[in-house]
Amino acid sequence: MQRVLALEDSLPLALSLRFFVSAALFAALAGALLLWHGETALASNWSPAMLAATHLIVLGTLSMAMVGALLQILPVVCGVAIAWPARSAAAIHASLSGGTLWLALALLLQQRSWLAPAASLLLLAVGWLLACCIQSLWQARPAAAGATEKAIRLALPALLITALLGAGMALALAWQRPVPLLALLGMHVRWGLGGWIGILIVGVAFQVIPMFQVTPLYPRRLEQWLPPALLLLVTAASIGEFAPWPGGTAWQMALAAAYAGFGIVTLVLLARRKRPAPDPTTWFWRLSIASLLLGCILLPTTLPCLTPGILFVLGFACSAVMGMLYKIVPFLLWLHWQQLGLPRPVASIRLVIPQAQAFGQCACHAAAVALLAAASLWPAALSRPAALALLLSALYLLLNLVRAVRLRARD
Predict the structure, then answer these.
(1) Distant-in-sequence, close-in-space partners of 45: CB < 8 Å, separation ≥ 6
(2) Does the CA dihedral 307-311-317-322 come out positive or negative?
(3) Fewer CB within 10 A of the end CB, N or C, for the chain?
(4) CA angle, 150 then 158 then 266, to 5°
(5) CA-to-CA distance for 164 and 142, rounded, in angstroms?
(6) Where is 82: in which H helix or E strand?
(7) Residue 32 counted as domain residue
(8) What is the signed CA dihedral for 82, 86, 89, 90, rounded to 10 degrees?
(9) What pLDDT, in 10s, does the model give residues 306-363?
(10) How many structural domains comprise the chain?
(11) Residue whose C-alpha is closest to residue 313's, from 153, 201, 393
(12) Which residues lie below 8 Å from residue 121, measured CB to CB, with a gap of 6+?
């Protein structure tokens, strides 16, 4: 884990804030959509409303926030220069936002002809992200790279494969071409969740858990071998979709076990943190890891696959991302004021987003995770309460972020 940060290389604050605020907006859209459609949304994994809401969360919330964080992490943590930073951030944000909205509408309204332009915009966002950072990211020798940088190097190709699989399915549906849709869908989900999102969160955790939670470092061997092992397991499980491959679902279970191992180590580190009083981010991480472990346990059961999916996406990934936002946003604002020599509008970095407000949103989000997981089993009774909890959590996050951004407006 790399402790030394090149703070002087951080990008202008506005480039990342637009991604973070947009992430909260897309989560609110997903909650409103599920609230409107109620039980019919959760009646099936493939209902139009569920497909639309899933992509609003995965693309509009998770990928949006993760790309915004990457634009700061790469120069500050990894020493990677971002090409054309202002233009790149604007182009990626616009194409990712437009493509996500267009795709969600196409899925919700079942308009096949809209899938092709949506896929084109999303491919543009992914391609631009890779183009603006890939050359610098691979210039350094792998041996000299930190654990976070090595994980990012593996997560970005997984993102590209995810995008290509998704675009391929979208174009096949739009042009009515025969393809093995279920097999491609399985690979798309596996590369998106187990590859892009999972590996990136694991790699960023190697940096932010010890730094922000004041814990011991992750074991060096875990940092070195877990991200490539995850990528290999995703690859092995994907090959099994199309070719005879020994072990059947064993590769999928091995992937879940690898993530569970990461979760157990993280819980142990959090239990050994040097600050006695846990902050909101600590609770977000505990919720994240608890959801991950429960999802891994439920994966081989006969429960609907929607249940572990909700636990992984909303419980594990969204909880981790939200927890990091409550550290990253105040840190970036504090750094912004320091670099420009501006008077700070609050006395402490903890007051940029007061802890009481962050704890409140954490409680709303925990309720949303629990209710949505339960609603996947009992949709008639719990669909709308779960969707309302998700909407309130997203609006709470949006309010907290907007309050923090308004402090910058006083510059």
Answers:
(1) 304, 305, 306, 309
(2) positive
(3) C
(4) 55
(5) 26
(6) none
(7) yes
(8) -160
(9) 889 999 999 999 999 999 999 889 888 887 777 767 677 777 788 889 999 999 999 9
(10) 1
(11) 201
(12) 95, 96, 98, 99, 102
C-alpha pair distances (Å), 403 with each of 43, 176, 370: 37, 47, 27
Asked if residue 249 has pLDDT above 90, the reply is no
- In this structure, how many other beta carbons lie within 10 angstroms of the beta carbon of residue 265? 17
Residue at 372 is within a domain: yes
Tokens 């951030």 correspond to: 89
Q: 1 lies in a domain?
A: no
Q: What are phi and psi of 303, to 5 degrees?
A: -65, 155
221 Cβ contact list (under 8 Å, min separation 6): none
User: Is 16 within 8 Å of 327 (Cβ atoms)?
Assistant: no
Count CB atoms within 10 A of the CB of residue 327.
Answer: 20
User: Taking the model in full, what pTM does it have?
Assistant: 0.92
Q: What angle do CA 345, 348, 349 make, to 5 degrees?
A: 95
Which positions ≥6 away from 24 have C-beta within 8 Å?
A: 61, 394, 395, 397, 398, 401
- What CATH number does residue 283 fall under? 1.20.210.10
Contact between 27 and 390 under an 8 Å Cβ cutoff? The reply is yes
Provide the domain limits for residue 232: 8-408
